[in-house]
Amino acid sequence: MEIQDARSSAHDVGRLISRISHQLKRQMCAPEEEDSLRTNMQRVVLHYILFQSMKKEVYQRDVEREFQIRRSTATGILQLLEKHGFIMREPVKRDARLKKLVPTDKAEAVREHILGNIRYVENLLKSGIEEERLLVCVEVLEQMSENLSGDEKRREEITDHE
C-alpha cells in the first residue's frame, strides 16, 4: 500500500508545480539584490515591459494577458514598480483613460542584472535535461495552463449567468 501512496503523490502535479514555484521565488529573490525589486514577479514583469516597450506601447492589460494574472494583481505589481521608480504611466493621446507603461532610466540601469538572473535560473532549470524531453515538458506545461485557463473561463461564464 505504501508503494501505491508514494506513486500517487509522485503524480501530484499541482503540488510539484507549487514546490517548483516556491523554489523559483527563493532563487530569484536573492538577498544581495540592491535594485529594490522584492519579488520574482516584479522582476519578470519589469523585464517584459523593458523589452516589449522597445517594439510597441505596453499597457496593463498586456501584462495581465502575458502572465495570466487578475487586474488587481497586475495593479499591485505595477504600483510597486512605479513607487520604486522603475516605470511611469503616461497618458495616451487617443484615449485619456489608457496609460502606457514606460520604463524609467532606473529600469534601464537594472536591465542586464534582471536578464542575467533570468538566464541563470533558466539554465539551472534546464540543466541535465535532454532537448527532446524539455520540449515535451514545455508542451505538457502549456497544455496544463490551457486546461486551467479554460476552466477559469467556464467558471466565470457560469458566475456571470447566475
UniProtKB/TrEMBL annotation:
UniProt xrefs under InterPro entries: HTH_MarR-typ (IPR000835), WH-like_DNA-bd_sf (IPR036388), WH_DNA-bd_sf (IPR036390)
Domain of life: Bacteria
Protein name from the UniProt record: MarR family transcriptional regulator
Keyword RNA-binding on entry: no
Keyword Transcription: yes
Pfam families hit by this protein: MarR_2
Sorted UniProt keywords: DNA-binding, Transcription, Transcription regulation
Location of the HTH marR-type domain: 10-146
